[in-house]
Every structure is written in structure tokens, then in C-alpha cells.
Specification:
The structure is a homodimer of 204-residue chains.
Chain A: E1 2-5, H1 10-21, E2 29-32, H2 43-48, E3 56-58, E4 64-66, H3 68-78, H4 89-117, H5 129-149, H6 163-175, H7 187-197
Parallel strand pairs in A: 1-2
Antiparallel strand pairs in A: 1-3, 3-4
Chain lengths: 204, 204
């Protein structure tokens, strides 16, 4: 199987980290698609995936699967141990809730700050700097909220490391590109960040 | 169990439609939380759910579950038949992929057009009308893409009705609030919309 990815983008990174945590990364062929070089918008690549979104998984029979969480969930079905989406029905509901919070309340504003205010996109897409500022403010609130949450437990969804932590890690690390860093007012979040960053899978 | 919802918002609607399709809606106590009346931001409600996001599921023992898809997936585990998230590993991957496309490529821009340009939010949140225009343009592209896709099959994720269709239906219907309607250039999408709208669950 083949994984089309960009080493610098947060969505491919959370898929690579997931696969590394499961011990599956070495079994895949990684194919780099550079967003900076516009390689995700070539006619050839758009035949693989119509919107040019990455990552994309390509099975050996040619079928493709898009969307980070669809890819991870598919591998989770094929290789359920160790569970990264929760071990019981309620745990899985919690992982899904916190994974979506990490995505919609953190990764999403981080991505919108980047798209709407970073020089990387200047002249490539239409930007709305005013929206980037709104997202920066939202993000500061959301990080304080997560800091409070992480004062009550070890990992985002409970006492067990999960895909929700990997989404949050990918989001927070990618925020640095836009000059957003964890401040001293988020000590619990920094404790969590240091701990999850030490996992070998976090280097994937 | 109790479901906090707003009858006019798209996220609670997709949860209600899911529960109706599974025959579970009548077993829940529905509690209306009016966003228009700011009932989602009262201190009492924020004790139930810290960000004031709806819908929220409250179990009989008081535990709460947030996020539409976490709520639907939890019910899917308790009541797996008929499957609304796919019947095989590959089907489930497809439903997840298309459900996320419906959410991120349609419901998300629809929500951002509403938040950033509609009079409903004027004076209640900071708006970025320029971003609303960017999202309107994106949405028009995405609807043409989905129109092309729905020329090849009956439902969004294949031949079987799924949660992905319900997310897309909630998004498209909510777009009307911002004056966005399916045009004559999206005949396949209109065929699909007419068909899924006829299901009794779509009135939930």
C-alpha cells in the first residue's frame, strides 16, 4: 500500500504518527506530494484524488481512500491492537468526542490562521486576514480550555493515549508556523505536550 | 437519555435524523436549547457542556457526550442494525470518507457563510464577511463536484443510505438560510436531494 503525503502538513503527520504507533508505518510506501511545489494540483495527482487533498491511501488493487481519519479507522479495523480509538463503546465515544474537539477547536483554527494570513499562501489562494485574527483569538481561548482539561487527566480522552492526542499534537506543532506557541498560562498543556512528544511515534 | 438540541441548527438535525432512521428518536427526551435566545451560553448550560456546543447527549447517570458524530457512533455501537456507518471495513472507510467530505467540504463552508455574513450573528460574534465570500465560492465548486459524483451512484457513499447522506442533507438544507440553493447545474445532486428528503427520518 502507498501513502501520498507531505512531510510538512499536519494531516499527513497525524496519519504517519498513528501508523508508527501501531507499528505499521514501515510496511507502507510513502510518496511525497509537495504542497509548496503545487504537486497536489497536477492533473496526474488529481486523477488519484479529485480535490487534491492529502493524505491519500492507495491500496495494492488501486482503490484509494481519502481523509486522515478514514485512513486511520480503516487500519484500526485491520489491526485492532493496541486500540487507538478506545477499548469499549464509551471509551470510543470519548475518543471520538475529544478527537473532534482537537480537530474542530484546534487544528481547524490553526489551519485557518495559516491559510488566511501566512505568506506561504499569498498569491496562491484568496486570503481573509480578518478571519485569521478571529481564529487566533478563538485558539487562545480553546488552548486555555484544554489546559484546564489536561489538569484533570494524563491524556486528552482519559488515562490512555489515543488518536485524539495525535490530532492535538499535530495541530499544536503546526501552529508554530504561524508564530503560535504554548504560553506559560498553559502549564498542563505543556506537561502533556512534553510527554506525548517523547513517544517515538511523534517523530513520524 | 436526554438530547439537548436546537430545532433550527444543522448539527442537532443530523443527530435527530440519524436517531429517527434507527427508530431511536422516540426513546429520548428532547430538550430545546435556543441559540437565538442565547440559551446555549447560560451558566447552567455551560455546566453541562463547557463550550456551549450543541447537541449534547446526557445519559441517565448524568454522564454527557458531545459532538454529533460521537453521539451517533455511540448509538451505532448500542444498536448496530441497520448499519448507518457501513457494513464492512471498506464500506465503513467509504462512509467515513464521504461523511467527512460532506462535513468539511459542505457543512463547514455553509456554517462559515452563515456565521460570517448573516444578520443573525451581527453584534453577537465578530464576523469576517470577506471569508464568507471565499466560502461561498468554495461551496459552489464543491456542490458541482458532488453533482458529478452523484451522477455515478445512488447515495453519497455508494448504493446504501448512510450517515454521510444525512450530514450532506443537513448542510444543504441549512444553506438556504444564507440564500444558497441547488441550481439547475446540479441535476444529480437535486435528484439525490429529492430522494433522501422523502425519507420519514428527514423530517426529524
Amino acid at each position: 500500500m502507498r501513502l501520498y503525503h507531505d512531510p510538512r502538513a499536519p494531516n499527513p503527520r497525524r496519519v504517519r504518527m498513528y501508523l508508527a504507533e501501531k507499528g505499521l508505518l514501515d510496511g507502507l510506501e510513502l510518496v511525497e506530494v509537495s504542497i509548496a511545489a503545487n504537486a497536489h494540483q497536477t492533473p496526474e495527482f488529481l486523477e488519484t484524488t479529485p480535490l487534491g487533498l492529502i493524505p491519500v491511501l492507495q491500496l495494492d488493487d488501486g482503490r484509494t481512500l481519502r481523509e486522515s481519519m478514514a485512513i486511520c479507522r480503516y487500519f484500526e479495523e485491520l489491526h485492532p491492537t493496541p486500540p487507538m480509538f478506545g477499548a469499549t463503546a464509551w471509551d470510543r465515544a470519548q475518543v471520538e468526542q475529544w478527537g473532534r474537539h482537537a480537530e474542530l477547536e484546534v487544528l481547524f483554527p490553526v489551519a485557518q490562521v495559516f491559510r488566511n494570513s501566512h505568506a506561504f499562501w499569498l498569491g496562491r489562494i484568496k486570503q481573509a486576514p480578518e478571519f485569521a485574527e478571529i481564529m487566533r483569538d478563538l485558539l487562545a481561548q480553546r488552548l486555555r480550555w484544554l489546559d484546564h482539561e489536561l489538569g484533570t487527566r494524563r491524556y486528552l480522552a482519559g488515562d490512555t493515549f489515543s488518536i485524539a492526542d495525535q490530532t492535538l499534537l499535530a495541530a499544536i506543532d503546526f501552529a508554530k508556523v504561524s508564530g503560535i506557541r504554548l504560553g506559560d498560562d498553559t502549564r498542563n498543556l505543556k506537561r502533556w505536550h512534553a510527554e506525548v512528544s517523547e513517544r517515538p511515534s511523534s517523530r513520524a
